[in-house]
């Protein structure tokens, strides 16, 4: 976690982030700017365009500057970050609140995962009270999907077969299919979890082809619930 004294004593901070922590990284970026410090936002993977509404999306870079004094790795748990900022008396402005709310939606999978509890709803309420643009967050994160994802879904749904009385769904997706769709591995993960919502389905098995019997990935209903 961030140590305020560390930030106070340096001039240039680098925040590293991936998709899962990108919203929280935006909140941290705003916080560091409020300290009148130079800050760089470095991504470790391509960031989903669903996050393009966040205030510092355009500031993301792939290469870290050589002059940085401190590196902070953003984490995906928005609840922990919010509580830390609150406990240390940091003023959470609207940009930070919006980014934290977006992170909360991602972290709790729209308040549907096991990471969601009463605390998550309480934090959401506080962030809305801090004027988080929660409707914008929902619009971009929950209602928008890229063309690549639609192509991926078409391929997955076309090339899947159920077995074991419908409890197992076998999905066949080759490297060529994935490249043609333009989707990412993260998109694949989301689509597989979506299939688990089908009635009676308890496990998803991903293969590269019907001929290749090696399971690339298996997701079980119980694993999602843990």
Low-confidence stretches: none
The CATH class name of the largest domain reads Alpha Beta
Shape: elongated
Integer-rounded radius of gyration: 20 Å
Number of strand segments: 8
Helix content, binned percent: 40-55%
The profile of the biggest β sheet is: 4 strands, parallel
- Indicate how many domains the architecture comprises: 2
Structural class: alpha/beta
Terminal Cα span: 25 Å
Provide the CATH architecture of the largest domain.
Alpha-Beta Complex
Helix and strand sequence: HEHEEEHHHHHEEHHEEH
In spatial order, strands of the major sheet run 3-2-1-4
Strand content: 15-25%
Secondary structure tally, helices? 10
The overall average pLDDT, rounded, is 90
CATH topology of the largest domain: inorganic pyrophosphatase (n-terminal core)
Oligomeric state of the chains present here: single chain
């Amino acid at each position: 976690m961030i140590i305020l004294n560390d930030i106070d004593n340096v001039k240039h901070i680098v925040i590293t982030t991936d998709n899962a922590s990108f919203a929280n990284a935006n909140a941290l970026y705003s916080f560091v700017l409020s300290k009148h410090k130079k800050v760089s936002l470095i991504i470790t993977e391509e960031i989903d365009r669903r996050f393009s509404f966040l205030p510092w999306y355009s500031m993301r870079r792939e290469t870290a500057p050589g002059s940085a004094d401190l590196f902070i790795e953003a984490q995906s748990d928005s609840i922990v970050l919010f509580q830390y900022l609150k406990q240390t008396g940091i003023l959470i402005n609207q940009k930070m609140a919006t980014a934290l709310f977006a992170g909360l939606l991602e972290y709790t999978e729209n308040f549907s995962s096991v990471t969601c509890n009463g605390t998550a709803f309480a934090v959401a309420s506080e962030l809305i009270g801090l004027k988080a643009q929660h409707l914008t967050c929902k619009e971009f994160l929950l209602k928008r999907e890229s063309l690549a994802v639609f192509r991926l879904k078409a391929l997955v749904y076309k090339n899947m077969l159920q077995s074991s009385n419908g409890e197992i769904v076998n999905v066949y997706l080759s490297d060529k299919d994935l490249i043609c769709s333009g989707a990412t591995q993260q998109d694949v993960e989301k689509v597989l979890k979506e299939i688990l919502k089908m009635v009676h389905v308890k496990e998803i098995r991903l293969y590269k082809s019907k001929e290749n019997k090696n399971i690339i990935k298996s997701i079980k209903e119980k694993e999602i619930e843990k």
